[in-house]
Each structure stands twice: as structure tokens, then as C-alpha cells.
Design a protein that fits this description.
54% strand; five-stranded mixed barrel; mainly beta; 14 strands; two-stranded antiparallel ribbon
Length: 188
């Protein structure tokens, strides 16, 4: 009986130890819900924050693709490195693509509506509450390559874009996103 329990415990430990988060930068075409990119040369990956209520939608996966009318939104919760404190990026990204142009092998130049929010300013009031002025990176050019597209099933590909983050004090920081990869399930 003790041997059976020991074998069960060892098998459980082995199974849990072998479970890994998929690599966000691995080129896959199977709807693994992965997304990652480099922001000014630093790695940014999705994070495991599976429940985000953003009215009227509730995102229940850390990476998802949802269709809204004629737009497919690829949305991800991000894990932003600590050394991005000077940018203070919010921990989400969304890439909105026109459904009518989504076919395997498509190259979408300056078509995607990409939203990468950041905190432009913050102010702490007398009660100690910090208020953030949230803004979006002003994207000047973008490119999305669709590797595999199975409507209502999955979509995968690569992306890159650049633009400026403009702060409340008028200063700007140029942002370059490259080596972007996504492989997501497509839900309605």
C-alpha cells in the first residue's frame, strides 16, 4: 500500500514538474494562445492573468482573439519587465485586424489598429490616492504577417510597429516593437 502511495506521489510530482508555460516566442500554428514581442529590444510576454472584466467583455484567457463585427481583436495581458519603469506601460496590448483581409499568407501594412497603452502622467492627491493619465502609443507604421488563418478557429503570425509615447509634460519616447509573434484561438 505504501509503495502504491509513493508511486502515485512520484507520478504526480513528475506530471506537475513537466507542465510548462508555452514559449511566447515559439513559432506555432496550433492556437496555443501565445503572444510575445520585443519593445525597444526588451522581451515582453503575455502573463497568466486569466480573468479581466473589461465591460462589456470578460477576458478569461491571458491571450485571446475575439471577433466583433468586421474586426478581429487579438488581446493579451502582458508581463512587462521591471526596467520599463521609465515608460510605465500598462499590462495589455490589442491588435485589431479587418476580418475581410485575414487569409493565410496575407501581409497587412499600416492596416492594424494597435493599442499599447502607457501612463502619460500620474498625480497623488491629498488623500494619498494616485491618479493615472493613461494614453496610447501613437503608432506611425505597422506590419502584420498572417501565417495561418482558419476563420472561427485559430490565427497565427508575426507583427511589428513603431510609434511615439507622448507624456503629459510634452516629452516623447520612440517605441519600436519587433519580433512579435501570436498564435491564438479565434472565438466569436
Amino acid at each position: 500500500m505504501k509503495i502504491l502511495r509513493l508511486a502515485t506521489v512520484l507520478c504526480s510530482v513528475f506530471l506537475f514538474a513537466s507542465c510548462e508555460k508555452p514559449d511566447s516566442f515559439e513559432d506555432t500554428d496550433s492556437g496555443k494562445n501565445t503572444l510575445g514581442f520585443l519593445l525597444n529590444g526588451k522581451k515582453v510576454e503575455y502573463s497568466w492573468q486569466p480573468f479581466i472584466p473589461i465591460a462589456p467583455i470578460v477576458y478569461n484567457e491571458s491571450v485571446s482573439a475575439r471577433e466583433y463585427g468586421d474586426t478581429l481583436e487579438i488581446f493579451a495581458c502582458l508581463s512587462v519587465p521591471d526596467d520599463f519603469n521609465d515608460y510605465d506601460f500598462c499590462k495589455v496590448i490589442s491588435i485589431n485586424l479587418p476580418v475581410s483581409q485575414l487569409i493565410s499568407g496575407a501581409v497587412l501594412e499600416n492596416v492594424a489598429d494597435i493599442q499599447l497603452p502607457y501612463y502619460a502622467d500620474r498625480e497623488t492627491d491629498s488623500d494619498g490616492v494616485t491618479h493615472f493619465d493613461g494614453r496610447m502609443v501613437d503608432v506611425s507604421s505597422s506590419r502584420v504577417n498572417i501565417r495561418t488563418c482558419k476563420p472561427k478557429d485559430m490565427i497565427s503570425g508575426t507583427f511589428e510597429f513603431d510609434g511615439d509615447a507622448e507624456y503629459a509634460d510634452g516629452t516623447k519616447r520612440h517605441c519600436v516593437v519587433n519580433n512579435g509573434h501570436f498564435d491564438v484561438k479565434w472565438s466569436e
